[in-house]
Predict the structure.
Amino acid sequence: MSIPLLSPIKHPWITSFTQNKEQIKELLSQYNSPINIHNMVPFEENFKDFSSIFNKYSLDHKIYFARKANKCVAFVKEAKKLNFGVDTASYKELLECITVGLPADHITLTAAVKAEKLIRLALEHNVPVVIDNLDECELVQHIAEEMKRSVKVGIRLGGFLYNGKYLYSRFGFSPKNVVNLITDYLGEGNKFFRLRFAGFHFHLNGYSPTQRAEALLQTIACVDQLKDRSITTRFIDMGGGFLINYLENESQWENFHHELKKAVLGESEPITFRNDSLGMHLIDGKLHGEPKVYPYFNKKPRALFLDEILSYKNSEGIPIHSLIKDRNIEVRIEPGRSLLDQTGITVARVAFRKRDMEDTLLIGLEMNRTQLFSSSMDFLLDPIVIHQRIDADAEPVTAYLVGAYCLEQEIILKRKLAFKQMPQIGDMICFVNTAGYMMHFYESEAHLFELAKNLVAEEDRGAFKVVPDEDY
Ligand SMILES: *Cc1c(COP(=O)(O)O)cnc(C)c1O
C-alpha cells in the first residue's frame, strides 16, 4: 500500500548538512541522541523578508524576535549582530538579552506574569514594559517610585471586535475603555505617574491576517482619541503569529487530508497510529471537523502575510500602511516561529525495530516525544532518513516512530512513514524545520533523561563547523 507523502521544504544548508553521515554520527556519539542543530543563515533571510515589506511602504519599524519559540542564545546574539530586537517573556530571557548586550530599545518585555525581580531588572536597564492589567500598573509604579525612575510602557490590548463579535482573549485591556485608562491613570499628575505611555501592543491567537488588520484599525482609533487629548502614541506592536509554509507541495497536503478521512472512515488502511483521526470526530459513521493541525501548507507565509495585513483597507478605502505612516507611528512585530523557519533540525538515532502485537513495525528512537512536540495534533513532515548503508535490493517498509517515555502514547509522529529500506540500528532520523517551538517548548526531563544538546552549525567552504549553542 502506498502512503501519502508530506515532503518538507529544505533550505540548502539542511540538504548539504544531512549529506555528511559521518559528521552527524560523531555528533550523536559525542552529545548523545537526539541533537538539535541550528544555522543562522535563514534567520537573517527571514528577518530581511519581513523588513522588505516595511521598506516597501517606507514605514518606521522594529522587529523583535519572540525568544520563547527557541531556547538557544545564539539567536539573541545573532539578533544583536543584525541589529534587530528581542521580545522577552521571563527573567532569564531578559537577563540574557542584557548580558549579550542588546540595547534597551531593542528589547521588549511582554511576560504574561511579571514578578518583582523581573520588573526591577527591566527598570534598572530602561527596558520598556508591556502592561497587561491594573495590578501590573500598581506594581510597576511601586517599584519605579522606589527606584526613583520613570518607565516607558506599552499597553496591551485584547478583546477586539471582529465580524460583530469580540475575539476572546485573557490578555490586555479592552479597546473600549483603554483611552480613559491612559488619560486618567497614567503619566504626570496621575496615580501611575511613573508610567509613561509609549504605545500599544497586542498578540492574537490563530493565523488570521484580517483579524490582525481589524485589530490594527481599532488600535489606530484609540491612537486618534488619545491624540485629541494631546497624548502621543509612538508605536503599535502587533505581536507574532505569522505563518510559515513547511511543505513543498499543495497536492500532497490535500491528498493527505483525503487519505486520512478515508482511513478514519474505515475505507482504507490506517495512515496514522491506531487510526488516530488527528482531532476529527467520527459520529455514527460520519466525520466531523477537520484535523486539528497547523496549516503546514499555506500560500501566504511570512512577508506575504504581513503585506496582506498592511494593505488591508479601512471602510474609507485607505490601506493600513498609509494610516500608520500618516500618524508617524513606528510599527512593530514580534515573530517567533516565522523568524526561525528553516533554522533548525533535530536528529535522533535508531535504537530498535520491533513488530507489535498487530504486526505493525515500530522504530524505536533515542529521543522522547517532548523533544518534538507541538500544540498541534501532529508534526506533519516526512523526516530525512539517513541510512548508514544503502541496500539497493532492499524492500521498502512502512513504520511508526516511537520514543523513550514509557507511555503507550509515546509516538514521535502519529503518521505512518515510508522507508526505502528497513532502518538499521544506528541509522539516523532527521526532523526538518523544528527550531520554532517543536524542539524546545514542551521539552521535559522525565525519567531524568537529559535535554537534547543544542548546537550551531556554520558552513565554511562546503564543510560545517559545529559548536555548542553556548559557545556560538
Ligand atoms: C508567542 C508570542 C509571540 C510569537 O508568536 P509566534 O506565533 O511564534 O510568531 C509574540 N508575542 C507574544 C506576546 C507572544 O506571546
User: Anything to note?
Assistant: The chain has a mean pLDDT of 97.
